[in-house]
Design brief:
heterodimer; A: alpha/beta; globular; B: about 400 residues; Rossmann fold; 3 domains; four-stranded antiparallel beta sheet; 19 strands
């Protein structure tokens, strides 16, 4: 088992024939992901990487039955691409592109929610169910199958955390990069219950960062609803105080979003909090051998 | 990206958001001319820096004559202003804004900012203007009203009424004025891809008009490409020179106080690396994210920027390649040692995409001072030891 995606998931790629889209789609196909086609306007009818290209997401979904879209379009077109996917009936859009305007993401996410489409990212490494399905840009070879679920705001800390788990002798069910932009799709509080419900996942690694209060909200949820052990790391304990102008942002979140504050909240919720990502593997081994 | 008060007020004027008249000046002579043009009888001389708390720091002063404008401009221009929002070193004042004095009956607070929770812009207002709003939020949160505005429907009449009644405004003309003010402000927030607008104080004049006495604006960097007029307002002198130089090479750099230079891919791992160095008893000298498109040239540039800092006693290169290919980083390190005098130990940990190729490249290059690490913990420990001369 796993969460959200597996070897049978049918995936299309928006921005399929571009440089980034091509490179990573090819890596995903090699990994075993069931990529059934892609979308690039005005290239419909062509074949790329041995898969059909469509002009629109709607036609791609109609022909292939795809349920997930991996989005690589340039930043200025991300909002448009997400809304197109939502209207075409895609169930999950994995948005890899970095640098999408925040205003566009507000509109796109609201529209996706209206159409019942889940989103991941933007500016995230994607999602991978180990040894089955990679939808994103992570180095697939490090993800060994196992019983640990992983959720991370940071791309490279997803890899570091996974590597730690694998080096400690364990493996991954599904690893999800949620991204750290101001507006993101699925986050800790949607993903933690999915891992809780997944029979194969026995432990959850949660990697957060300074800023915002998603980790504080996660701490509340964990305390109330999550019975599986959680190991957490919050990056940015030594980061300098942000150079802010005005105070409006801090007031809105109701908290400064410091690492110390988040670590304390998670610890109070019974989470095993580590002070360095280099300790993740050891902590996972400890909670799993209990 | 942030802009100055005088620039924010240019945008306000374009949208019909009322502000006192004012003129930006870069010299005392220009400040005097500005004061003459404005005509008085009262002027405010305001330091233009990218930070709040200017008044308390002595950067905003009232003048009652042209002579006073001249004296105050002399005093403020060129001063280093330290406020609770600047670093301890403060910021050099290079520009002034000479503004008409306003007839102040009441001071309010108004801002528009993205609320991450509702994922919508939020209008925030308070009757407690002119004070540190964080203190108001902490001590008397009931005095702050918040109104989320769904961008799909925009600013509607009910948003305006909620604002006016929330601020206890009962006079019909005043209600009309504040609603029109907020509506224009919301429109300019959306049109310009702003991240936040803060007006503190927003003043009510004796005739029931509302004026933006201050104006702070920040913008979404990701949207600057489609906002050329906003992008042109960037003032590079307000930013750290090394950070700006680094950004030209796709590097994200922030100087810190410690001894171990860090070069890492990804902001999360970069912070995690700093945290690990700290945990092992060392101190990070900087945050440096080489980004996803790192190549030999950018890595070499990164070394150059790190080594400009004389406090650096060792460098820790920590790469977990996803998009970044380790062999490119390895070539960058070799390139850097050729063009820059790398005179401190360099601890290198390369993992992920093309790591075996990278290890081979580094081995064959035979660089003095190079210490290879097997993982993050090992690398941080070796860097801490190297910085201590062990």
């Amino acid at each position: 088992m796993s969460i959200l995606v597996n070897k049978d998931t049918k995936v299309i790629v928006q921005g399929f024939t571009g440089k980034e889209g091509s490179f990573h789609a090819e890596q995903c196909i090699t990994y075993g992901t069931n990529i059934v086609g892609g979308v690039t306007p005005n290239k419909g009818g062509q074949e790329h990487l041995g898969k059909p290209v469509f002009d629109t997401v709607a036609s791609a979904v109609k022909s292939t039955g795809a349920t997930v879209s991996m989005i690589f379009v340039p930043p200025a077109f991300v909002g448009d691409a997400v809304m197109e996917a939502a209207e075409a009936g895609i169930e999950l859009a994995v948005i890899i592109t970095e640098g999408a305007p925040v205003k566009d993401m507000q509109m796109a996410k609201a529209h996706a929610t209206k159409h019942g489409m889940k989103t991941l990212g933007p500016n995230c490494p994607g999602i991978i169910t180990a040894e089955e399905c990679k939808i994103g840009i992570m180095p697939g070879m490090i993800f060994k199958k196992g019983n640990v679920g992983l959720i991370s705001k940071s791309g490279t800390l997803t890899y570091e955390g996974t590597n730690q788990v694998v080096q400690a002798g364990y493996g991954i069910t599904t690893a999800v990069g949620i991204g750290g932009d101001p507006i993101i799709g699925l986050s800790y509080n949607q993903l933690l219950p999915m891992f809780e419900a997944d029979p194969e996942t026995e432990c959850i690694v949660m990697i957060g960062e300074i800023g915002g209060d998603l980790e504080i909200q996660a701490a509340k949820l964990i305390k109330e609803k999550i019975t599986k052990p959680v190991v957490a790391f919050i990056a940015g304990q030594t980061a300098p105080k942000g150079k802010t102008m005005g105070h409006a942002g801090a007031i809105v979140s109701g908290s400064a979003g410091t690492a110390a504050e988040k670590m304390a909240a998670l610890e109070a919720a019974g989470v095993r909090v580590v002070v360095s990502p280099a300790e993740i593997g050891k902590a996972v081994a400890e909670v799993l051998s209990k | 990206m942030n802009i100055h008060e005088y620039q924010a007020k240019q945008i306000f004027a374009k949208y019909g958001v009322p502000t006192p008249k004012g003129i930006m000046a870069e010299s005392v002579k220009d400040a005097v001319i500005a004061a003459e043009v404005l005509g008085g009888p009262i002027w405010v001389v305001k330091a233009q820096i990218h930070a709040g708390g200017r008044g308390l720091g002595g950067g905003v002063k009232l003048a009652k004559s042209i002579d006073e404008v001249e004296a105050l401009s002399n005093e403020i221009l060129g001063m280093t202003l330290v406020t609770h929002q600047t670093t301890a070193e403060g910021k050099l004042v290079q520009k002034l804004y000479i503004e008409d004095g306003a007839d102040i009956k009441d001071e309010l607070y108004l801002s528009v900012v993205l609320d991450r929770k509702s994922e919508m812009p939020l209008i925030m207002a308070s009757t407690e203007g002119g004070m540190d709003i964080e203190t108001v939020a902490e001590n008397t949160p009931e005095k702050i009203i918040t109104i989320p505005v769904d961008p799909a429907i925009g600013f509607q009449g009910f948003h305006g009424r909620e604002l006016a009644f929330g601020l206890g405004i009962t006079d019909k003309l005043e209600q009309k004025n504040i609603i029109s003010f907020a509506e224009k402000l919301f429109k300019l927030y959306m049109d310009n891809d702003a991240e936040m607008i803060e007006i503190n104080p927003l003043v009510k004049t004796g005739s029931g008009e509302f004026l933006a006495l201050d104006g702070k604006m920040g913008f979404d960097n990701s949207a600057l490409g489609r906002q050329p007029e906003i992008a042109a307002m960037r003032d590079l002198t307000e930013e750290d020179a090394d950070e700006v130089e680094a950004s030209h090479y796709g590097l994200s750099y922030v100087a810190l106080d410690g001894e171990i230079g860090c070069m890492v891919n990804g902001a999360g791992l970069a912070m995690g690396t700093m945290d690990t160095i700290n945990y092992m008893g060392g101190t990070p000298a900087n945050f440096l994210d080489v980004g996803g498109s790192a190549n030999a040239e950018t890595v070499a540039k990164g070394f150059e920027i790190i080594l400009k800092n004389p406090k650096v006693k060792a460098i820790f290169v920590n790469i977990f390649g996803g998009i970044v290919r380790c062999d490119r980083i390895a070539n960058g390190i070799i390139e850097a040692t050729k063009i820059t005098d790398v005179n401190v130990p360099v601890v290198v940990r390369l993992d992920g995409t093309n790591a075996p190729e990278a290890a081979e490249i580094l081995k064959n290059a035979n660089i003095a001072n190079l210490i290879v690490a097997t993982d993050l913990g090992d690398g941080a420990a070796k860097a801490v030891a190297a910085a201590k001369g062990e």
